[in-house]
Structure formats: C-alpha cells, structure tokens
From TrEMBL:
Family: Belongs to the argonaute family.
Organism of origin: Phytophthora nicotianae (Potato buckeye rot agent)
Comp. bias regions, Pro residues: 528-539
Domain (PAZ): residue spans on this chain: 652-765
Family matches, as CDD domains: PAZ_argonaute_like, Piwi_ago-like
Domain Piwi residues, every copy: 933-1233
Protein name: Piwi domain-containing protein
Region of interest (Disordered), ranges: 1-361, 415-472, 522-548
Amino acid sequence: MSYSGGGGGYGDQRGYGSRGGDHGRGYDDPNRPGSGGSGSGGYGDQRGGYDQRGQQGYDQRGGYDQRGGYDQRGGYDQRGGYDQRGGYDSRGGDYGRSSSGYDEYSRGGGGSYGSGSRGYESGRGDYSSGGYDDRSRGGSYGSGGGYGGSGYDDRGGYGGSSSHAGYGGSSGYDSRGGYDQSRGGGNYGSGGGGYDDRSRGYSDGGYDDRSRGGYGGRDDRGYGGGASAGGGGDRGYGGRDDRGYGGGGGDRGGDRGYGGGGDRGGDRGGDRGYGRRDDRGGGDRRGGDRGGDRGGDRGYGGGRGGGRFGGGGGRGGGRGESGPGVGTVTGSGYESIGDPVADPRIQDEWTGRAGVRDVNAEDPDLQQEFLICRRPGLGRGGKSVQMQVNYFGVSLDSAPPEIFKYHVDVERSPDLAADSKYGPSGADQKDETMGDEPKQEGKDEKENKEDKDVEMSDVSAPPKRERRPERPLPRSLVRNVINAALRQYEAEFGGIRVVHDGMSAMYAPAVLPWDSHAKTFVDVNPDGPSPTPPQPPPAAGDAPRRPFRGPRTFVVKIKMAETISTNSLKDYYSNPDVNVMPVLQALDVAARHLGAQRLITVGRNFFSMKKTFPLKGGKELCWGYHQAIRVADRKLLMNVDQAATVFYAPKELMELVLPALNARSANDIRALSERDARNLARALRKIEVVPTHRKDRKRAIFGISAQPANQTIQSIKGESMSVADYFSKRYNINLRYPHLPLVNVGSKRAGKENWLPIELCEVAPGQRCANINELDTAEIIRQTSQPPRARQETIIDQVRQAGFENDPYLAAFGMKVEQRLEVTEARVMDPPDVQYANVSERPSGGQWNLRDKRFVEGATMRNWGVVISANVGERDVQGFIRNLVDMAGKSGLTIEDSNPHMIHMDQYRGAQVEELMKMCFKELEARNRGPPQLIMVIKQDKSVGSYSDIKRMSDTVLGIPSQCIVSQNVRSAKPQYCANVCLKINMKLSGKNSILREPLPLVSTAPTIIIGADVEHPRSGMGSRPSIASVVASLDRYSAKYVARVAAQKASSDIQLLPHMLRDLFLAFYQSTNRKPEHVIYYRDGVSEGQYFDILQTEMRALRKAFKMISENYNPPVTFIIVNKRHHMRAFPNNPRDADRKGNVVPGTVIDTGIVDSHRFDFFLYGHSGIQGTSVPCHYTVLHDENKMSAEDVQRLTYHLGYTFARCTRSVSFATPAYYAHLAAARARFFLNEGSDGASTVGSFNSSSSNFDFTELHNDLKNCMFFI
C-alpha cells in the first residue's frame, strides 16, 4: 500500500495547507512505493464565484479555482494547481519540477512551481530551491517566490506584490506579520483593488455587507480579525459566517499573527471561529477559547485552535497541535497495572513449560451457543453532521399481505438423462461432444464417429462410458431453463408475475392458479424452438445413422414451499426476535428480477457491457451498478452503488495466451517448459470458448495438451495422424501455429478430452475475469476513481437508468423506490494525540509527519548487509546508505554499522537473489558484531515474483528480517523515503515508533490482548491452492507491538488451527507483559454477512478451547467484532464545509443511526483521509460482547487504533489489528511453494496440476513484526 501527501488548504479548504505532496510520490511504502499526490492549497472551498467561467475560483471566502485542484485521480492538476491569479500557500506542494520536491520530513512539497522561485529562506538552508523554512513550513508559488513578488518575510507573514493577484500591496505582510498598509487589495475588483460587491470580494478595504466581515484592507492590524477599523467591520474575515474568522472577532484582533492576531489572538480566538460548524471555533470542540492564546507566535489558528481541520497552531500552519514528548518508552506499559503471576504452577502454564493441556471435546463450555448481541445504545461523542448516503427509501404501501414462496427443481429430460453420464439432475455440460457437429441433413454416423474419435480423445485407451455421481446444473443454465418455462407455459401462471433467484426459489404475490400445490412442466427448451430436421434416406453402403436426439430439454417442477407475511417487517421493528430474513429475501429477489433478465449478473452487480475500457491481455473493464435491499431503522432501503469489474474481451483466445506466456507473437512460442505449461493452464482454466471452424455452442477449457498440435497423434479408423493433419484433411484448415499446444474442452477425465487448436477458439462474451494482476489493478484504480460529487451524480443517474419507477415486478409486489438519496446523521470524533519521544502532535486530517520527531523506543542495528540485485551504481548505493543512516539518527534508530557488508549481483553472474541472500547471511554470521539482524535487498523494480522469492527466503529459511528497496528510490535517496524505511526497520527490530496520548478504552486500564484475524482465499482461477489463515495479537498497553501466527488450510472461512495459534499468542503476551490477559478484543476480517452466526460459534469455541489449553480456570471476557470493507455504502457530506478539500468525509466520522439496523450493534467508521477517489468507510459489527463495552468506547477504541499503524504517519482505513492480520496473511501466501527447498514443510496441498508445500515461519521471527 502506498500513501501520498495531503494537499494544501486551510486544513480542510483554507489557505494554509496541510503538507502537500509531490505529484506521483507522496508517502511512499518502501516495498511498494505508490502513487502519492500533491496538495491542493487554496483559499476557500472551490465553490465560489470569481472565475470568469462562473461557479469556480474564489468565492466570498476566498477561492480556489477548480481548474487547478485535485483531479479525480488525486494528483495535482498538470496546469499547476492554483491558476495564475492565485497563489500557492506556505506549505502546499507543487506539481513537481526538479527544483521542487519533498520536504525533509513531511509529506508536503516544500518547493515551488513557478520559475525563479525562492521560497522561504531559512537558517537551516532551503530544500530544492524553495524548501521548508524552519518557522513557516512551506515553499511559495508565484514567480519570484512568495505570494506575488517579494516572498515571505522573516516571520512567515503573507506577502508579495499584487502581481498575479497577490493579496496585498507591494510589500506583503510587514515585519509584524500584519497585512500591508500600502494597498487595500490585489489587482482584481474595483475601487483601489479587491473584489467588488458583485463578486463577493472585498471592495476597497474589506468584504461587503453580503460576506459579513472584512478581509484585511488598509490597516496594519492583522489579516483576519484585525481592529474594528482594519478588518472591514467588527467581525473579522468571516467568510459567510457572522462570527469572525480567527482573531478576537475584531475588537482584540491581531498585531502579529495571521488568523489569531495579537499576543493573545483576541483572547478567545473568535466565538465562532472560521464560520465552521461548532460554536467553539475552528471546527470542533477543541477550537475557540484556546485558539487565540498562542495564535500569533505559533502559527495559523493558535495553540489548540482549528482542531481536526488542521488549523491549530503547533509549529506552523495546517499542522495539528504540538506538545511535549513522552520520552523513551520501554516495556509493555502494564508494569504498574494488575499483579504478576506468583503461583509457580500457573507460571509453568503461562510460560509453556507445562505443555498443552488436553481439552475434552465434550466440555460444556465448548458446546455453548453464543448469541449475537444487541445494540447497547448509540455513540455520543463528537460533532453532529448531516450526510447523504447512497440508500434510497422503499415503501410497501401497496404490498400484498402475503408472499408465496415456491420451490423449483430443474432436471434433464428423461430421454437425455438416460444418455447422460451425469444422471437425471447432473450437468452434462457436453451433451453433444465437441467432436459432434450439429446434426444436419446428410450427416451420417460414419462422419460423426470419425469426428468424435479424433477430437474427443487420445484413442490409445478409450475408456468405457461410466456413470458419475450427480452434480448440480450450472446456475446460469438453471436460470435460463426457468425463464424458458415461464415463457413456454405463460398461460399456466394466470397472469401472475412471478420472480425467481435463478436457483431454487420462486416468489409470487398471489397463489398460483393450480388445483394442487405442485406443477410439472416438461420439454422445457432453454435454446428456443428447434424442430427435428428431416432425414434423407441413407446412401448405398452408408452405415446406419444415429437417431437425431433433438434439442436439449428439461423438466421443471414447481411446488409450494411457504407463505411469508409482509407484516413481519413491522413486527421486527419492535421485536428483534422476529425472523425477517424470508420477507427480505423475497423483496430483494423481486427488486432484482428485471435487471437479472436484461443484464449480466455478477453477484449482486449488474453489467450491460455497453461501457467498457480495454485492458492488456485480452481483458476489459466494465461498469455497472450494485443493488441490494436492506432493513434499517424502522424502514426499508435500497443500496445502489457504482460497480466495475473485469471481463474477458470476446476476442480470439490467442489474446489471452500471449500475455500468459510473456510472448509478443505466437511465432515466439516454442516448446513450453513445465512451468510455462502450468501457468498457461491456470490462465485458461474454465474460460468458455466458441469454435470458429463450425457452428457450436460455448465450451469450458479444462487444460492444455502436453504436446503441440503437430505432435499430438490420434487414431482415426486405424490410421494415426496428428491433430494438425486431421484439421487439414477434415476441414481443409492448415493451422498457422501447429507448434502450439491444444486446449481441452471436453472433460478432465483421462480419455475424455476434446482437443481444439488455440487459433480456432474465440472467447465467449460475458465472462468475468477474476485473475487480476498488479498492472490491471493499478489501471482499474485509475479508471474507477471518482471524486465524491461525481460518484454521487453517477449513483443517482444509475437509479434513473435502472427504471425502478416502471418496473412491473416491483409494482406486482407493491414496492416503490424513492429517487433521492437518504440523509442521515453522523458524528465526527476527535483524533488522538500521537506521541514521540521529544514531541507530540494532534494529527490534521488523519495525518502528520516525522519532522524533528524521535521514536519512543529506537532499536539498534549492529550487523546488517545489503544485497544488490539491480542495475544500480555503487556510488548511488553508498549515497542512499549515508542518507538512511543520517535519517535513522534523527529518528532515534541507531545504526552502529554505517558500512554494511554488500554483495552485488555483478560479483556472482547468474546467481539468483535467494543465493545472494544466503551468501550475505553467512558473511554476517562470520562477523564479530552479534547475530545478523537485517538484509536489505535492492531490487530492480516492483515485480511480485522477485519480492516473493526474497520474503520467502528471509522469513522461512534464514530467519532474519528483510527490507526491499527499488533501485529508483536508491538513486533519488529522498529524505522522506528514508524516513519511511526507518519506520519499518525500527519495528522489525522490535522498536516502537510512537504511542497515543489518550488512554485506549479498556486496553489502558487492565491487561488486554487485542487480536486480529483474517483468512486470505486464493483468487478464482488459481486451482485448489489453500487458503492462508493469520492471527496477530498485541503485546503491550499501547497497541504498538504485535506478533503473528500464520497457517495454510483447505479453503474455508473459519480458521481451522485457531486454538493452537491463539494459545501461542496468549503465551507471547504473557512473556512480554508478565500478566495474563484479563480481557480479549477480537477483530475478525474476511467474513460475509451470511457467515456471521457460524463464524461466531466456531471461533468463540476456539477461543474457549485455547483458554483451556493454557489453564483450566482461565476464561476472560471476549468482545468479538467483525471488520468489513467489502460493502457498498458511500456517504457525502450534506454541507461542503463538513468535507475535506476533496469533498470526502473527514476521518473520525461515524454513522450508527438511520441506515443501520436498529437492533444490531454495528456502525460505519471513516478511519482515514481518502487519497484517491471517494473514501470508503469500514463497517464494524459487534457480534458478541462479554466486556459490556458501550457503543462510544467501541467506536473510539476502533478509531484510535487506526493511528497506531506502524509503517506510515497516517491513520488507516480499518482497525490496525485486522490490517496487520491482512498483511501477515498476504505475506504468508509467499510461503507456498511448488516444491520444497529444505525449509520446514508443514503441509502439502494438491491443485489440478500442482502440489503446494507450505513452509512455516522461521522460529527466529515468530516474535517479530516480519509482515510490517
């Protein structure tokens, strides 16, 4: 994952920005440096009026031109951000030239965009011709540096001449930081400069009466909140608010600061602040009264003003509040909490010396059923805001009192079933073989038999036909058969509109008009009418013909199942024990029925295939929409969202073969290696193709041949010939690529293959592609990312296009869908303060930086090495190491060995990176510097293949942490990148980067273990590869250190080895804290809503078993929380001033009313600041809570845990324990190997073509954050 810097702007949309980033760089993950984006900067909120094109640019609050803001990919517009009339503020980033770039520590761009830029001058020197000033934190924008022509003065004043719309006169801010007296305004507007009253600017020294508050004007008393004569009125800057911008509401405004004025900043920092939402100023509860005391000296907004919008003081504009550091933090933090274990017998249990206790499977505690808990109440903390959400009200005013459910069975017609090797209800997916041409007039048995022998099998040992166990018909076929039955027997349904789910459930709004409760429909033909063709008499000497079997037909049986009362919904609103699922399922099927008939269905998503985008490798990205019915707080809602997925493009099969083999053309493909053949078979597995040499229906690919077409020999009437020769003789087709393998479209069973040349196959349309690589993923993100406003409009448009108003099935079931978005209440919680050894900071917009910060517990690296597996010069490597060592020293990570042992691939021609790592490890062992601690690997690019080889070697064979560096980052050696690397190395060496100042609910008051669990399943098309289960657990009071256990298992949603993994983690917690966990908080990721109850039973019993495996009487209370990001809820702030600069929901926003179930203990939480597109919240559901936590405590704990993620200086989108479990599972996926190399193998798994060995994590890394 990669992180970019935030943009400029007054915290959310104001002039002083919050650490802008350089386009394309940003907060880079050292292993996977990512996209990044620059900050936008800007006075105002992008909605205002001073652009000649209307509705853009500066508005009455000062304006940012929408042409220069973030584009929809999150990067800075190539036209340079601010247009030429505006200025870039003190901390905004830029689009990027070599003269600008990253500040040494923050994610912001310290340079400037315009030519000849000087930026700030600083006693410490500037960075990249316009870098950070130690007091001002930012560069400049306009030509000549500064805002206008003169730049910032020595106090960080706002300066510049009026050139290019500079706000102010020729001198800018004077030495006292006030607004210059010489000119009232810039170049624009009438009467001495400024905005005139028609454009809602300031007219000759202040805002007019419609904007309520002077902007500055002709007095030297400060910018926002100056004296009553200078601010253009009593109320300060104000924007559209009556209460002033920052200073003391005018009367006590500034001698010194911008937006805080005076030594005391107007005493109160403004009763109402900058016109934000709260009456305490600055945008949240921490603004206002405390905003002015330190305003002038400590930067924009004051000591604690501005709150979460980043206006609040500290060391300069836009950064959060700063405070004293916490010093060095060693130990677990539980040393003074609780009592250590004194009983030697219990000590033996918790140190593991007593061994694993046997647990009786019949123990009553392991048979207990765990009930899903109810909502204990609502969260109360935070500021209330209004949100529009992508839910649409559904009324049932005309719904029938009862809905009738019928069970549907689909079987193959008896005459065909008898001939089918799958049985009467089996899916004979090749009831006419690929070798049998469609039976046409004049085709005789001799010809058909010949085709079958050639294309069906290698006739060296044709097996006898044998019956196989029955298997279900394909779902797509079942849907088509039911639809055909409804068409063919329409009169039998008496005009009643029925709906079905494409499987076994059918619903009707009235009883179907049959004498009995069951009905059978025969000869249902999903392929349409197909009369038996006439057969001419056989010619003399012809063999007897095989009878024409006719079209494939089916039998459909429909039987009454149950009657569902629609009143159960109303009953559920007051009684949570009412089972509401039957009526919800019925209504959902009815709402989806029309879309399922017209469009391609993938899960709950619909695709028309009209809007597509071509991807490489024969794939295309398709847009559609998601739809689902949900029950909420005393109402029914429909969730609609934009959806996008990848389909195989309906092209020649060769379009998929070439990229699978990394070939440019078919002529480049010769004899395939075993690995290439295996990769090709996986890439083509289950793709349906249509032959081009004759008319036939689509067939699924089951594998490829071991030999090419010209070497695959078949026997035809006793004559042996190759498949290539057969097609030449039989179809007069000379294969262009006879050296390519064949695809099997027959059966996986030996002797039942049906071979076709690749060049004679086309990919059937409408097939979803689940095998997505990293390049595809990057392009998908670029194409699907939409700014919030654009996504909101897209969703509304999709609702219109879906045609719910004219849907006859909705009308039949009495449903009416509203056409406007629902509005619900949300709350914005305060962020925690992040503490370092020497300073603490309140994050702004969910992010902070590492400038001048030291880790609370710095590790020491004495013995490490570097493996260079890339084309990079020694000088570049040495320069990178110097920068890394320097940055580590500033951050508190001690690197004693500044000249690590290095091995370059040029020294060992042909050696793989794993061999180079082994050689490096041996050299480190031979040094007299203690055990090896880390191997840094410099790799050429971001390829997953080499990365997985490196991690598998370090994590399972060598038992030493590794750190990958891409050669490009070695050459650039940016300080910010080096800081990111230090973050990761410090944690891998058991250090601690930072902790939170605020106590974590429950965790800080008693020894509490926080567990994250996840199961990563193989992607579709990856055969029978195993799933990877991972469980992580905290080791201290701060949620700073974690350890992980990973395991491979057969595909399953539950974690099969969970009791043993948990026992190990509980013992690790005791080893770290000398305390038994008194409470357990369990975050579980990777569970769908339909699995909630089963997972709760399985894993709560696993927890109970783990407790008993340690001690008979150990049974701490557990809070069990599901973490889900795979949902389609999107929210849009009702008031743009409640959004961030991109229009997204701000971090800390929680929604637990309106759109959630009133009985279930769940909530949506925005834990992060969106980098690209529309932010996605995380959905948390508390299934079980023995700790009796309040809703407020669960929400605050979950949100604050997002600030403990160790490898970046941003809050993350979901709770850190679950995030770590996800990372550990993804890392352990690399431990799967098709063949063992000597590492400890703990399991073997069969695929359709491969055996997989899973090598366990090395013992030396079991108490290390190897996955970070």
